[in-house]
Amino acid sequence: MLFILPGQLFENVRARAKDDNNLNETLERIFKNIEATAIGTESEKNFKGLFDDIDVNSNKLGSTVEKIFKIIIAFILINIQERVLRKKSSMMT
What residues contact 16, with CB distance under 8 A and at least 6 apart? Predict the structure, then answer.
């Protein structure tokens, strides 16, 4: 069984995001790791594909690294936290 490392928690990623020149790669790796933590468990179906809609490498996020980071930090990380919390809440009911 895999675990989410403390450095991969969204709160910690968000705190380091402005200094991460490869934030898109960091997020992509973390998304895959989060999904992998559920493989072979009861919750596998709930986590499989959870981040499929998020393309952190999309040109639609901006034309420069700085713009992309601002979008990722301001939008994606905040919305991912909310999405995970909603998913977790719906799994408990």
Answer: none
